[in-house]
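DM from R.C. (forwarded with permission)

"hey, sorry to bug you on a friday — could you get me a structure for this? deadline for the figure draft is monday and I only need the backbone to look sensible"
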Amino acid sequence: EVVENGDTKFIPDRFSKTYFNWMNNIRDWCISRQLWWGHQIPAYYCEDCGEIIVDKEKPDVCPKCGSTNLKQDEDVLDTWFSSALWPFSTLGWPEETEDFKQFFPNNTLVTGYDIIFFWVARMIFMSLYNTGETPFENIYIHGLIRDKNGLKMSKSLGNGIDPLQVIKDFSADALRFAIITGNAAGNDVRMSDEKLEWGRNFLNKLWNASRFVLMNITDEVISEDQVINNLEETDKWILSRLNNIISEVTDNMDKYELGLAAQKVYDFTWNEFCDWYIEFVKPRLNSENEQSKRAAYYTLSYVLKNILKLLHPVIPFITEEIYSYIPGTDQALIIEQWPEVNEKYQFKTEEENIQKLIEIVRAIRNIRSNYEVPNKKEVNVFVNSSDSELKKLENAKDILNKLARVASLSKLPDNQDLEKYATAVVNDVEVYILLEDLIDKDKEIKRLTSKLAKLTKEVEKSNKKLSNEGFLSKAPEAVVNKEKRIQKELTEEINSIKKRLSNLQ
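My reply, with the result:
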């Protein structure tokens, strides 16, 4: 009834069906076990008349015949019988202790789906029987940890993972992060060294980014009021994006979407804070403009502190350690307040402007990569856009130079032969770079011609395979499909090279 009427909820809700299936098809429960350890059954046998007495204390005499020759049952209660008492017995019940008043009933139970009846249901009915209350409001169901092939870990298969060894090799935080991130409630987790390495790599990224921030900001605690009027567009962008992440992650956490919450903080930390904002702000840290520097110091510190707070439930050790070094943090992270959206940092226009700038930098980088332009070589960029968009890009010329090696930025002249340009389109901005500025024309033609010949041979080989009836009939379907995919990718790359060669010639 407590689950039917919503006093206790399963997360995800689909697991309530498992609960109801057991409860609606209840069977007698054999509570005795022949084990050495457990709560001994409080049943006593009279060795003279056979009377059975059940009592809290061992009786002195048999109530039927008066014999003192009594023996306690040697069996113990089933493990789940005593485990069912856990929510209240651990808090001092039946005494009205402070712990019992504070922590019973509780908010959330976290457990696996394989013991919904054995443990969850029995805690509920034991609590209702003994206290009249359901023991928890929410039951968060997680999946099982499986090996990288999806098999359940077992001693017989030898595919188990020792968590203590994993912690030694990768750290406890990396293990926690790998298990939680990207996984939905109730779903099993495939564990592998690759996933653990991925988690550890993120911790390293966080550590190195934090070290950069702490090495470049001052020990002075700068308040919001001191910099609010001097925030630059990139500051406003990252602060506004942080607001969005705080709002989304808080909502995810409230809904027990822990994997999604962790993934969002990961993406924000790595892709926006580390890869973009820190790069945006580096030139300002060495500038002569004190107002700009202080705004950068404040923003770096503020965003890092909030990232650490958002990550702390998932990776508590590294976040607590980093937090202790940040100027102005006078208490442990674990007792800090959860981050809240700051209404002063809602900068929608700046968000859109910087996001477009990021896409333009990516487009220029892609062009450079396609034509294998050396990193040190600067390029002249032309754009076809409105005057207002051009003005925004001109204002960001230092960023464009630092992140995409753009020497100059100007409007595309009229009546140009566009075949002579490498191009990209970002929303309503068209980006053009003269091919002759990118490459040595003759050298590039030679390189592409050589690559085209090599790819042509590979696609001919693939075509021969796919036209062979023996291969098609005997090879597994997955192998045939893979070959078709290779053929398609080769053909697309050949067409792309032919187009580039045509432009160059």
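R.C.: lifesaver. The chain is about 55% helix and 10% strand.
me: no worries. The mean pLDDT is 91.
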